[in-house]
Design goal:
Elements (H helix, E strand, L loop, with lengths): L14 H21 L21 E7 L5 E3 L2 E3 L4 H11 L4 E7 L5 H13 L4 E3 L6
């Protein structure tokens, strides 16, 4: 007696559905990887009911295109700015922040002079810029 063998059917897998699944997996992992920040340190900060943040008094240092220097609107120069900032710092108990506003046409050397003086006085510095277009 002859035993008949069954015909083996070939399984067909549609490539289109696999590529859709692969695309969605890749999209999912790309979205998750951009949300995760590996260098972030997660801490829980304590709460305080009586404490409050005290903002530092901003002192503006302005250098215009003609190299005129101003401290809080008062004219000064690069030689007396150290004493001006030091007296402002003492006036507000060393709780000031210098906001540097400089014309874009001045040299970097002028900016570095102010940054150097502010760093020597150990005063926090913020550089004011215009928002990009």
């Amino acid at each position: 007696m002859k035993i008949r063998r069954r015909k083996k059917g070939h399984a067909v897998i549609e490539a289109a559905s696999l590529s859709d699944i692969l695309f969605f997996l890749m999209l999912f992992f790309l979205m998750i990887s951009t949300m995760a920040s590996p260098e972030a340190i997660r801490i829980l900060l304590p709460n305080a009911s009586t404490g409050k943040a005290i903002p530092k008094h901003p002192v503006s240092v302005i250098i215009d295109s003609k190299l005129n220097w101003y401290v809080d609107g008062r004219p000064t120069d690069e030689y007396t700015i150290r004493t001006e900032l030091s007296s402002e710092s003492k006036k507000y108990n060393n709780e000031i922040t210098v906001v540097l506003k400089a014309d874009k046409s001045i040299s970097v050397e002028q900016l570095i002079k102010v940054v150097d003086i502010v760093n020597q006085l150990k005063i926090p510095l913020v550089v004011a810029t215009e928002r990009g277009k």
